[in-house]
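Sequence only, no structure available. Ideas?
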Amino acid sequence: MPPRVSIALLISFVACAAFFGALLDAAMEGFFSDPIYGGNRDKIGWKLVGFPGVHASYANDIERHGVAWTRPAASIGDEI
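Reply:
I predicted one. Tokens follow.
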């Protein structure tokens, strides 16, 4: 294969890898973002990984190791 062709293929491969890497990053940001921004409908991404959301205070729960989190996931847009 001529050097120019292999360089062109390498450049196109790098461009594709960069594009799909950026696409994957954007998809993960949408899947795990706060629902107020339009992604993560019904907090499904948070429920998948067990993220509790943005509660006002975790001070009472910091030293509770091995205890299941019982509160539902909270979003910035949830009404108190």
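The chain is about 45% helix and 0% strand.
Hope that gets you unstuck.
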